[in-house]
Amino acid sequence: MLARRPNDTVTELLTLAQSDSHEDQIKALRTLASLTKVSPQNRNLVADTTGTIPTLFALSRSSSSTIEVLSLSILFNLSLNSNLKHILADMELIGLLNNIILAPISLDSGILAASLVCSLAMLDKNKAKFGVAGTVQALVEALKRPRRAASHHLLSSLSELVRFHGNCTLAVRAGAVPVLFGVVERMEGEDLAGTSLAILGVLAKFKQGIDAIMNTQGVVNFVVDVLKRRCMLSKEGCAEILIRLFEESEGCLRDAARVPEFSSLVADLSVRGSAKAREKSGVIMKKMMDANLDPFLDGNAMIYDW
């Protein structure tokens, strides 16, 4: 049917999606979701059909969880086409996504809203839009409430948004630093911890971010402990945070050097870590030697070619 009369088919489906019959609405939206799931050409066709995007925006406000989820699913599918990301990043939709993130009527709607933010934010021009609209604050607020199934999507969206400097400032002011450390501390999963520490590593590159991290009680011991027991992505994030802490304060460097096993942990990372982790561990060891500290306080000395 789509191959014979594509525009007419989409128009008919949109009409059905707005009908008084809940069953017809669901059938039409499921068909549109299926059409846009795997075909970039179908996504462009659906998006170019008059009235599609305003209709989907309106249906995304439905009190029916099923209608809301299907509408968000179609919008997410459309967002996969790079040429549609700018069109979809309308302030009306962004405001709607913020509201869903803060108060989802279902788990699926919250996940889809966060996923749509992440997809649209991959276009750099959209990152500032989300910052202006309060999405960074909404994501941080949502992360304060432990929801294991949604946390990954919330963190992925925040990770994408903080690639824009202005959004880093917004994240720190919204209290992202203690929230992200809290995600790591809750031990909810290696992927969540790794993403949280990667975001903290980005925030640490800016003055407000590193100040907030340094003001976290026991931060050096906490980061070193995570370095000891977490996945490689987490270790990379920890190393980045430690480097910034050491650049800001020699006291932090000395605190780390006094932690049992710290030097051996860094040495092990320099040998068995990822390429990024090995690079960062080398920076840490050099900072210790430049500060006239013994980088092998626990006796696990190794030879390195700097």
Automatic annotation (TrEMBL):
Q: Show where the U-box domain sits.
A: 17-291
Decide whether keyword tRNA processing is in the record.
Answer: no
Question: What is one Pfam family matched by this protein?
Answer: ARM_PUB
Task: Show the InterPro entries listed in the entry.
Answer: ARM-like (IPR011989), ARM-type_fold (IPR016024), ARM_PUB (IPR058678)
What's this protein's name? Answer: U-box domain-containing protein
Keywords attached to this Swiss-Prot or TrEMBL record, sorted alphabetically, are:
Ubl conjugation pathway
